[in-house]
Specification:
The protein is mainly beta and 108 residues long. The chain is built from one helix and five strands, in the order αβββββ. The radius of gyration is 13 Å and the shape is globular.
Length: 108
């Protein structure tokens, strides 16, 4: 199996989209960290939210995260308010909220 975006088969990709690797509702202001061996691959905003930071799992050529090297806790979302209904895709090993509520979907 190839790495990066081609890491998953079609079936595995569909299962990830359905949350079959796991999900978590998070509305705290402390840090959410997924289980060992897992990363957050999608964040669905439930209540308008502001992120304080997110720890990038791996840097890619497809993001504009100049200061977000793999494993760093960076302000990759700025101070913008994300409205309910928005889904953000990426790979994070930790997520911090300032306010709001999100559903976090896990991958490996």
């Amino acid at each position: 199996m190839a790495g990066g975006l081609q890491k998953y088969t079609v079936v595995e990709s569909n299962n990830l989209g359905l949350g079959q690797v796991g999900s978590a509702y998070f509305n705290g202001t402390n840090t959410y960290t997924p289980q060992s061996g897992k990363v957050v691959i999608a964040i669905q905003v439930i209540d308008d939210c502001v992120f304080s930071s997110a720890t990038v799992a791996e840097s890619t050529d497809f993001t504009d995260q100049d200061t977000a090297e793999a494993g760093t806790n960076a302000d990759v979302f700025g101070t913008d308010t994300f409205p309910a209904g928005v889904t953000i895709y990426g790979r994070w090993t930790a997520v911090d909220l300032t306010s709001g509520a999100v559903m976090l979907y896990m991958g490996s």
